[in-house]
Amino acid sequence: MKWVDANVVRRAWAVVALCCAASSPGTVTDDGWPSVPRELELTYPRDHGAHPEYRTEWWYVTGQGEAPDGRRFGVQFTIFRVGLTPLTGVETPSDIALRQAYAGHFAITDVAAGRLRHSERLQRGGTPLATASLEDLDVRLLDWRIHRTEDDVLHITAGDRVEGIAVDLELAPTKPRVLHGENGWSRKGLEVTNASAYASFTRLALDGTVSLDGASIELDGTAWFDQEFGSSVLGEGVVGWDWFGLHLDDGRDLMCFVLRRDDGSIDPASAATLVDQDGDARPLTRDEFELTSSGAWTSPVSGATYPNRWSVSILDEALELDVEPFVANCELVTGASTDVSYWEGPVRITGRSRGAPIAGTGYGELTGYAGSMGGRL
């Protein structure tokens, strides 16, 4: 079977980025893509599947686990889908598949070694090499796959022989699915068209193996799963974001993000979700939480400087958290796929909740420090 030239798909990805930048307010963008409606109702398992009527979508997993000898590892796995041309509603399934491109990022962080290894994939749709079910979570990109079983367990397999990394993980949700924002409608800018559909399993039991240079290592830990889709996600003037998915040791979970603007301010669409021990979710608006950064780490590869300390607070919960990376150098430079450099790595948490000590772990994602994300999403 003939492999698609990656340069062709990269050029298509660049065209889509330019179209995003040119999108104007309205229920349909100038080039025909619909925005996510505020009244959207998400239904599962169908909405775990792909939504090719929207321009972009991603399925994202992060997690931390410990080996039997106490070593700690972080794992990130993401598959992106991008629509190359809008659908008209009369396409056959094969037509829909041909109008998609897929990219993937996969990384393992060895905390003891202080090292992140990562891999990337890129493939045009329309062949068995890159597919996404329309009915449930089952996405394949070359030899990578994420799929859901009937009992909501997620199974991930991925590997890269050149980089010497592989994973085979099962992720079992320990809390119900969370819909962020307004029943899953997550605003990302001043215009109502700047929004995504955003759902998560915020806490999953992680079990399986990671492999480094052929050595298989059993892991037991905790993971996070996100799925988002939309067509014109970021608002005008937004250059990037700081995002965190945090697991607190009292059983609560916190998703929070700030959208950074080109004038140095924080966009008012920044938001958070606090999930209690039973899975009940409380959405938080920009004025209900604080996320500030400090410190600096400069990448020797991209030259970008990222913050490396963060403070998170929710005043009416008397919750104050300090967040720091386990490993400073967790930058992914993805010139062979999405052509974006960003920081994504495992973090640890200390702080206080209503005066009592609290701790935890999680993952952070920092974009726009090596170049604006404006026009890419």
UniProtKB/TrEMBL annotation:
Pfam families: CrtC (PF07143), Lipocalin_9 (PF17186). PANTHER family: BLL1000 PROTEIN, HYDROLASE. This is Hydroxyneurosporene synthase (CrtC). Transmembrane segments: none annotated. It comes from the Bacteria. Residues 56-231 form the AttH domain. SUPFAM superfamilies: AttH-like (SSF159245). It comes from Rohdeia mirabilis.
